[in-house]
Amino acid sequence: MHLSHALTHRGTVREINEDAYLELPHLGVWVVADGMGGHAAGDVASQLVIDGIQQAVEHLEAETITLEVLKKSLIDSNRILQQMSEHDFDGKVAGTTVVVLWLYQDKYHLLWVGDSRIYLMRDQQMKQMTKDHSQVNDMIDEGLLSPEEAETHPLANVITRAVGVDTQLDIDYRTDKVKDGDVFLLCSDGLNKELNDIEIERTIKSGNIIDSGLALLHASLVRNARDNVTCILVKNSHKNINIIDDSDKTIPIFSHI
């Protein structure tokens, strides 16, 4: 059984929301796409990727979805966006990041391009499962920056991969066994720009997926959410779960100190 809760907000600065998401728990598929700010039609690009995956899987049974179906959808969207850039946007790039979570039987599958992220909370410990395709992450790998320095680096917003940018789409992929009680967080970088991993982990630990999702969004808005913010929380469970939490747990809300 898969429970999920998705939220998106344009933030307090941006005029439009260039994020888009897909939530198909009955098929075990969730997607977040973040249109590239400062480029042409980022909102069009992110929605096109979302629509492409939905159209690719919505007529299928869960057992007939494959990794190749998901990859082909992203490759097709990449080609369409390149054509749109040439013919509809005067050569300006229309691009988007994307993260995909696919749960089937006892496995999870992650696909991603760009710097949107997927985290996994397992046994009360959270880990980032995707690796940002970004300029600062490359610099961290080369030993030129520490993770802490990367957060405030001038190139922090520069990504090295996106759907719609290059003729060849390089998609990263990861798979492993999923456990009962695992909680996945898919998010655009508007969330992790405002909250660090410790704060995100603490919030997810503090409540059910609905309360935690609302708290994450609220905390980012309290900090003036400079970018669009989207998050999807997905819980894998073999039990019948009451997602309305009657406990007295307090969800931490973060603000400037």
UniProtKB/TrEMBL annotation:
Query: What CDD domains does the annotation carry?
Result: PP2Cc
Cross-referenced InterPro entries, in alphabetical order?
A: PP2C (IPR015655), PPM-type-like_dom_sf (IPR036457), PPM-type_phosphatase-like_dom (IPR001932)
Top-level taxon of origin:
Bacteria
* Ranges for domain PPM-type phosphatase: 3-236
Which Pfam families has this protein been placed in? Answer: PP2C_2
Q: What is this protein called?
A: Protein phosphatase 2C domain-containing protein
Organism field? Shewanella vesiculosa
For this protein's source organism, the top of the classification is: Bacteria, Pseudomonadati, Pseudomonadota, Gammaproteobacteria, Alteromonadales
